[in-house]
Amino acid sequence: MQASHRSDPTTLTRDKLEAEVRQLRAQSASLAQMFEQAPSFIALLTGPEHRFALTNAAYQQAIDHRDVVGSTVAEVLPDAAAQGYVDLLDQVFRSGKAHRATAARFDVQAVPGGPVNERYLDFVYQPITDAHGTVSGIFVEGHDVTERTLAEVALRENEARYRTLFESIEVGFCIVEMRFEGERAVDYRIVEANPAFVRQTGADVAGRWVSEFAPNLERHWFDTYGHVALTGEPAHFEHYAEVFGRWFDVRALRTGDASARRVAIFFSDITERRTVEKRAEAGERELRLITDALPVLISFIGDDHVYRFANRAYDDWFSIPAEAVVGRDVRDLLGPEAYAARRPYIDRALAGKTVTFELDWPRRDGEPRIAEIRYLPRRATDRTVDGFHVFVHDITARKRTEVDLSRQVAARTAERDQVWKASSDLLCVANLDGYFVSLNPAWPRTLGWTEEEMKARPFLDFVHPDDIEATLAAAAGLSRGEAQFTFENRYRHKDGSHVWLSWNAVPSDGLIYATVRDVTRVKHQAEALAKTEEALRQSQKMEAVGQLTGGLAHDFNNLLAGISGSLELMQTRMAQGRLTDIDRYMTVAQGAAKRAAALTHRLLAFSRRQTLDPKPTNVNRLVTDMEELIRRTVGPAIHLEVVGLAGIWPALIDPGQLENALLNLCINARDAMPDGGRITIETANRWMDDAGATQHDMPPGQYLSLCVTDTGVGMSADLMTKVFEPFFTTKPLGEGTGLGLSMVYGFARQSGGQVRIYSEVGEGTTVCLYLPRHYGAADEDDVTRRLAEVGRAGQGETVLIVDDEPSVRMLVTEVLEDLGYTAIEAADSVSGLKVLQSDVRIDLLVTDVGLPGGMNGRQMADAARERRPDLKVLFITGYAENAVLGNGHLRPGMQVLTKPFVLEALATRIKDLIAAPI
Ligand code: ADP
Ligand code: MG
Description:
By secondary structure, the chain is an alpha+beta fold. 43% of the residues lie in helices and 26% in strands.
């Protein structure tokens, strides 16, 4: 048809065409039906992404009816993807090689997280190639073999279980097939045998005929098994198999029907058991041999008091052969007296108790003999006592040794007792209830109480009240099982005094064993020693204070020299009429006086920390201001040179402290040059880089230095390590305080700087102060300007000044007049009070506290207030006369100013007091 179609298309009639189309339709419909109804599942995947093009009903069922056509496998079958099937598809697509799987497991999970359906599939992934051999898709075809697979698995498991049982039981097992000649069994074949059977028979016999591997097997076996196979009656017997040289317990029963002639046989190797039974017989013989050889009387007496067994030793002990003993009655053998002695023990043994007792049992020759007799009850299988074994030992020798031993123990105990009594240590035993159990004689000797008195009450009664707590703690430790060593407490002596005891105590078995020592003497010595040490410390302190005050006096002298020198100079200049110079000396004197005041304050506040009052300071100016004073202080034998760097940075420091430090350094320099020399004071700016900073032990940064160099004796390296220590001095008493450099050091460190010494013995010394740079301008004010700033007095305001020291009166008067007040002076309390009781206007009373004239300043002020209740009072005092001034609780309108003071402070106080409402 096709040939005609091709050769002559025009001849194709419409009918023919229609017929052909119909046929094709039918064909394709039946193909589609086939595809749809095929028992195997089929799917067609296209492209590398495995997109479903077609699936049949079986396939739909395999994937739990998910809608997959048009989607990729990865998209719609995530369960398959997760189990590696997409990877498998990728592999097939890439390689172009088909993949075939048998009983591959596929856990179908149509809904994620939903139920899982365990399936087993046989399938093939068949790549589809185009004309060029390129893979364009995959044809999937397969069967669900779940039912079959699961059945197989179950079967295999079942079989394995039986096999395991079969193979692991200890009983040998085999199935044999009998061969008969007529009624007579002549041979049998091992159809199947378990490993235990193979082990027991020692031969690999499966499938073999007995005639082959055990040709000499006794008839017994054939006859027995033959009987079982023919009759179906099971057999059970024990038999010795000569071919194997072993005893067996055998059970045989027919399996299958009579025609099969098969017998199942269970074997147990009982060779061991049989051997033991045989040995037991031999054992009894041996036992007799052994008991006969023992030097111990051994017998067995039944509950009827009749001997059943007796060993050879009876020959010796009773002079009767052992055989003659058996069968005799105990009473009959021993005689009535010996029997009576044993009777209670015999009864106890027959009541089921093991009994041991000793008896004198003289030998036949009359020698003493001690016997240890033991009755061991014997129980029958029903647990009732059917008699007892008798064991009799001769323990005469052992007894003798025991006596010796106890004698030794007694001797040892006596020795110990000796120690106990003679010991100078206190020895005791106490119980955990807090009572002494025993005490050695050292106790009464030490504490005066008798042993009975001490045992009569709890030991805590004797303990010093202050030591009870510690004693209880130690006792608690002992009751926990912890030994206590060198624990100390005080015990009351009968005479009321206390004795120091040092305890070493060990707990054992609920008791405390202690050796105790009287350490009262040692304690007192230690106390005395502590007192001596304290006294020594005190005297050292006194010496230090002596040095300190001596040194301070020295420093004061220096300052006074500065003041009096200035005054002297002023006097000279005034005499010469050179009044312009006076100002300068005045400044010097004021400076020295201020420093002296500072020194006093430091002395009063010696133990306290100095509070610094840092101000931006021009160090060059400070040095220049100090120059004159230093020159005077160091004297004419020393040449002083000051080298101030122009443009020195300001430093943020307490200027008073720096002046003090500089003066100290210069005095040290002077002291180092008793025969004169040169002092150079030098200032400089310094950049401290990292290396320099590390070397100088200070943070890197900008510093200014103030160095004092002398040409004196210098210092050794050893000396340099000590000079910053407080109170370290090499100077004679009264000249050095040993505080100069330590104060300098403290000041420098507190100011954020450092001190360094460069010195060589005989070459002189440079001491440098490094002070951190202050970023800002230095303060430039001075006292006169500050004084001028204090406001002036109101019209006619009057102040009464009472002081016995004319210089103070003069000073105060001058300040008052400078400020525009009217001043009235009085030199003692009487004249002061007279003024106060007059009508003169007085706005303020300024008075010293200590006054001549019968009244102190306070009393005078109080008296004055009777007439002038609103009188304002300012006390000026050199020291804190606290008691006089009411311990700081002054009445309103009264104030205190401590001497020495700067004038500006006085002026401000006066102004403020007068201005303040009372
Ligand atoms: P003091 O001056 O009271 O002895 P310092 O603390 O000022 O106390 O000094 C301690 C010691 O350091 C001095 O006793 C002295 O031995 C030594 N010393 C200080 N400065 C110098 C110096 N410039 N030259 C030599 N030795 C010095
Ligand atoms: Mg000094």
